[in-house]
Specification:
The chain contains eight helices and no strands. It is mainly α and 186 residues long. The chain has one domain. It starts with 6 loop residues before the first helix and ends with a helix. Residues 104-123 have low confidence and may be disordered.
Length: 186
């Protein structure tokens, strides 16, 4: 890729069939990935040990280690990034939860309200992930819609392009998934 590319033109050239390695593409999408990561970190507790830059780096490594993917454009790339971001956040939450159960052998007072609050937030993310996995077993596309909407912040139109369905179908899937998850998480 030459230096006249912008993030949007680099991703649009993917749509036209050009193939780029993740390393070639990263400079053009890093800002958007960091924006996604910042948005996700706003949902986490204030003293979360994972920072937005570290989350982007972990997503990059996860994407780099995945089987060869030929992204078909911006939406497809960010759908893959959303899945990777979800996996990184879940892995981080599981590790934190393991540590809270004694994996780090750190002594905690029973009345440590802060530790209880942190554990609650970690468990919330793990519970959400379990619910999403259960939703995916019954309705795979609806799980993908939630993942792309929540973790990547893609619009309904962008999600429709990735999934090859109409925007109305995505709207229905999103509404269904929200209701299903609300019921499941009660």
């Amino acid at each position: 890729m030459d230096s006249t590319f912008t993030p949007s033109t680099a991703l649009q050239r993917l749509k036209s069939g050009e193939q780029f390695s993740l390393g070639e593409l990263l400079p053009y999408v890093y800002g958007e990935l960091k924006g996604m990561a910042r948005a996700q970190m706003r949902h986490q507790r204030a003293n979360h040990t994972l920072q937005a830059s570290a989350l982007v780096n972990a997503v990059y490594l996860k994407l780099e280690r995945s089987p060869i993917i030929n992204w078909e454009g911006r939406e497809h790339f960010f759908a893959s990034a959303a899945r990777a971001m979800r996996q990184v956040l879940i892995d981080h939450a599981r590790t934190a939860n393991r540590a809270k159960r004694g994996g780090d052998m750190q002594r905690r007072e029973l009345r440590d309200d802060r530790a209880e609050e942190q554990q609650h937030e970690t468990l919330d993310l793990l519970i959400l992930n379990e619910a999403l996995e259960k939703l995916g077993q019954e309705h795979e596309r609806k799980e993908q819609v939630v993942e792309m909407r929540y973790f990547a912040g893609l619009s309904e139109q962008e999600i429709a392009e990735v999934l090859g369905v109409s925007t109305k179908t995505v709207e229905r899937d999103w509404a269904f998934a929200q209701a299903w998850l609300a019921r499941e998480l009660r």
